[in-house]
Amino acid sequence: MAGVHDLARNETGIMTAIEVLRQRFGARLETGQALREQHAHTTTWLRNQPPDAVICPTTTEEVQAIMGICAEYRVPVIPFGAGSSLEGHVNAPAGGISLDFKEMNAILAVHAEDMDCVIQPGVTRKALNTHLRATGLFFPVDPGADASLGGMAATGASGTNAVRYGTMKDNILSLKAVLPSGEVVTTAQRARKTSAGYDLTRLMVGSEGTLGVITELTLRLQGIPEAVSAATCSFPDVGAACNAVIATIQYGIPVARIELLDAVQVRAVNAYSKLSLPETPLLLLEFHGSEAGVAEQARTFGEIAAEMGGSGFDFTTKEEDRNRLWQARHDAYWAGLQLRPGARGLSTDVCVPVSRLADCVTAAQERLASMGMLAPIVGHVGDGNFHCLLLVDTADTSEVAQAEAFIGWLNDLAISMDGTCTGEHGIGQGKSSYLERELGPGAMGMMQAIKRAVDPLNILNPGKMGLV
């Protein structure tokens, strides 16, 4: 499979490092086959490449000690959050040590007056928002899965709220990371802005564990809105729905979420979540603000949607109704799998300028139809980002090859539209061959130079992002 190759292993170094680490960490260093496979990539179609051992550090100092030992014996280190990434980020193609951050899950400080907090990387987004509830604040980045915030930072995660609140790179003020040398670097202070030196925070965000191991995060928080309303509207085709999105963004309506489900995905959601939505392309939206504000935003969107051929527009402020709709959206992956029992889901995403969204989604649908492939489409379309879930019998090599061909075609299409081969899944292994096509040799050369300068032994998450 493209991008998933075994790399040369340092067998002697790995064996020696494991023994040294066992002396230091005892039973906390685990080498069971099942556990190691769980810490490689099992959530998608990519081949599982397990590490040789798993350790759960509890402090930055322990991460430093592990990095020091692994650097001495030239052993790869692969950071692991919740394992919910989709492009092979946690695979270990050269073996090595998986650092599982589930024990580094403390919320270290909440500065409600400054609207920020300091956490360890193993804290999940749901746990953080539960902790924050009494403060009237919340952390807005929502990729759907209950991912760890360290993993979300490393992969530059995004999600349903990004159209209003931005992605991880917009919501991290500072972070602490352990470099391959064992040195600890703090990328910034807690100030809301800075002009002091290189922007090391955003260099680390999205670096996919190839430059440092994140051990602490300072996050920007938002106030819980006074009122929230959710809305649904059906459209005759995807093009009309996308044009409604474009008009909504251009009109300046401050939507918090605006999600597209194509007709196939709506059918899957109805069956899985016991809903009765019209089985045509659907926009699912959420508005945040004052009670009068969200009502006005919803009404204005309804007028735009009607002009674009929308029908059945409905909105609600009832929490139980909103939660039911958004839970159905978050369950879209599992719902999609039920359309073809026994198939695996090959999930891929691209992102284009919003003005090209209708063209890109429509072309993707036509291509899927011509190839006879079943693939529901969902998208965070306020950002021009959408996902295809290809339902494939992975035991059939011809189906896998066909799916890979479609993913490659879609990546190239998005890039040709001034877009990106991934809006939020990241590069990892699965899209490593497309990064240079998107950024060009100059940018890749600069990234390679940074990687070699920071990690000259190439022990941090090797084989990812096309970096060597």
- Going across the major beta sheet, what is the strand order? 15-12-14-13-17-18-16
* Global outline: globular
Overall pLDDT level? 95
Helix proportion of residues, in percent?
Answer: 25-40%
The number of helical runs is 17
Ends apart, CA distance between termini: 19 Å
Helix/strand/pairing category: alpha+beta
Please give the number of β-strands.
18
Largest sheet: 7 strands, antiparallel
The unreliable regions are none
Oligomer: single chain
Task: Tell me the β content.
Answer: 15-25%
Please tell me how large the radius of gyration is.
22 Å
List keywords for this structure.
single chain, 468 residues, alpha+beta, five-stranded antiparallel beta sheet, 38% helix
Structure description:
α1 packs antiparallel against α3. The protein has a seven-stranded antiparallel beta sheet, with helices on both faces. It has a five-stranded antiparallel beta sheet with strand order 5-6-10-8-9. The chain has helices at residues 11-25, 33-38, 60-72, 125-132, 149-155, 162-165, 168-171, 200-204, 238-251, 263-273, 291-307, 319-330, 332-337, 357-371, 397-416, 435-439, 441-454, and strands at residues 29-30, 53-55, 77-80, 97-100, 107-111, 116-119, 137-138, 172-178, 184-186, 213-220, 222-223, 227-234, 255-261, 282-289, 311-316, 344-351, 377-380, 385-392. β17 and β18 (385-392) form a beta hairpin. With 468 residues, the protein is of the alpha+beta class. The longest helix is centred in the C-terminal third of the chain and has 20 residues, at 397-416. It is globular, with a radius of gyration of 22 Å.
